[in-house]
Amino acid sequence: MKAMILAAGFGTRLFPLTIDRTKPAIPFLGKPLVGYVAEYIAKFGFQDVVVNLHHQPESVKKSLGDGSNFGVKIHYTEEIPNILGTAGALDNARNLLENDTFVIVNGKLITDIDISAAVETHRKSGAIATMVLKPNIKREKFTEVNVENGYLKGFGDFAKSLSAMEIKDTSRDLTAPLMFTGIHILEPQVFDYIPRGVYSDIVPTFYNPALKKGEKIAVHITDANWFELSTIPRYLDVSLEMMNGTSLLAGENCLISGRAVVKDTIMWDNVSIGDDAHLYRTIIADDVKILAGEHFENAAIVRAEMVRNCEEIPEKALKGYIQGENYIVPLIDYV
Q1: Entry pTM
Q2: What distance separates the 2 farthest-apart alpha carbons in the chain?
Q3: For the packed helices 57-64 and 33-42, what is the interaxial angle rounded to 10 degrees?
Q4: CB within 8 A of 311, min separation 6: which ones?
Q5: Residues 264 and 251 sit within 8 Å (Cβ to Cβ)
Q6: CA angle, corner 40, sides to 37 and 46, nearest 5?
Q7: Distance between CA atoms of 124 and 210, rounded to whole angstroms?
């Protein structure tokens, strides 16, 4: 059985960390994020892996190579000139996937979900597809997925957070809504729903029409660990959580003054921190220099030159400002 890692997205909400790389290629605890995904699926015996590319494709190829360092063999598919959407990505890899059941995994995930258990659920269900779901305990802004007796019934709105009064009201049913994890198992018959050579997303193109037609779509519900790194605050929070109490993670060739105070900070490569600088809950990207006496808290910092030279700042990007040779993105009060 083959697996496909989705790695073509722009990563606009991670800008400016994604100026020179796509989202799955950002470093995470010493290796590219997409490398974690490749290692993760390799643990379940998936060795033949398709990876789709569009934005900054060379950054993913540089991160993964042929896949041998992560226990897989990679076939790249590139979406040119335009990105194709989730279903369009499958169409673009149709010749690699259409002969057997296959698994799709989003390239921005950190998880220990048991894929083998999900595949077993799929096999027993006889369904055309199986979505792996998880309770949205924190009521984060993910679409609610409606299920009944182990099968998909449809999709709702974004989950709504509970007020303090609702949480205290013990008469209410506080069962968490279910959300999609970005992992699903599909049969080749899904290609009957996917048009050729055009942009299309998987829910309106396949899931909704398949439900309307009466196709069986199973769900596998898990409470395993799962993190999705689509925003800068999430990237920082998840990194710090998985550092297990370590206060600093530094990449290659980083220089930190003995007089600097650095706490809960992620540094990429070739970073230098000057005397009496203070950093707390920061992400410092490649080649950034923090000058003597500078103080930053709850911020992501890249070289200002990179932002000056980029064509356009994405609309979904957090707002930043230039200070000296750096571009600072405050993360405080972000929801």
Answers
A1: 0.92
A2: 67
A3: 50
A4: none
A5: no
A6: 100
A7: 19
